[in-house]
Amino acid sequence: MLSPPHIEVTEPARRFPPCGVDNTRPSHHLNDSKTLFGNPWLSFRFQSLFQWASAVCVIQFFLSRSPRIPKNIKSLVPKQTVTWGAHLGNESSAKATWLGHACYFVELPTPPGAARGVRIIFDPVFSNRCSPSKWLGPARFTDAPCEVEDIPAVDAIVLSVFRSSDACASTDIPTLRALIANPSSSARIFVALNNAAYLSGALDTPHHRFHELDWWDERFLRVALPSSVGGPAVNAEVRISCTPSQHVSGRTAFDRWHALWAAWVVDDLHSQKKLYFAGDTGYRTVRDGEDEEKVPVCPAFAEVGERFGGVDVALLPIGAYAPRAMWSNLHASPADAVRMFKDVRAKKALAMHWGTWVLTSEPVLEPPELLRKECEVAGVDVDEFLVPALGETVMF
């Protein structure tokens, strides 16, 4: 069994100005103690109290509007045996494997003399239910493509949103425990502000393994990778950047907005490959009767594209968007995803945030079908925005 690689995390000189300048409080901070946050753009509007609390809405959604799951759904959502890209060769390329919902396992290009590249997993969720409870809530309608214990040792775990004490669509305590327990891993966990203390306690993991960032903060991750020929370790370095996204947080009904949410950019300093992970995010708020093309859109994605000069691949959500009046402020539709793809200036996009749980009312197979139509309308080639099969590895 391989011993875990030595990992260091340091804070580099700031490249981007913080959200608050001249000692002013950042616009997404709602207090001075960094314990309350908000979305500071016109693109975010709250759902009305009627939408959240109306018994009519609840009954309509859960009883009459819940989409039908075909009995053969597991054969309709493509699935491949997970290989982590070992059969693809080409060690100069990065590899991204879709593991369901918003979870991607990424291995960056292998540096000369190393046995592998730096490995990062995003928003890992392997529990059966998307819920704070293991007994209640939406259950998977497709199986995970592998067991969590089959995932190779990772060097970093990156989370976009943390919302519950057990499992939810973005974060899953049992899965995190399993990843951290791998004796070949000494993974560091990257989260947005005010998430680390809770996770450290819930996972019984030393606080020094967590790195808590505000929007536009960055860290260097240095990993001593195993040698391919049994020689000394090969040092690799990536830059991890925390960027804005449009969402909410809350572990209970009483702590909403108390932890920050984020998207992330990973820049491999050896190969210069750049990856953007949008996480769980909305793009605009659309009310009934409004023209989607005329409402404000979140400016954060275009800002990412400008500041980073584009990325090689963007991992973008395409599902959990209906009804739009209820979910558009929090979740991206296929049309939103195509707009985000262009905003962040990605060379390639890979779809996620669909095909795992019934979270909203659109038909479960609609997101990739609608994505193809939206790409055609927007002039995006079929090989530019891919919908990987469960377990499929894509090189970039």
UniProtKB/TrEMBL annotation:
Name used for this protein in its record: N-acyl-phosphatidylethanolamine-hydrolyzing phospholipase D
Species per Swiss-Prot/TrEMBL record: Russula earlei
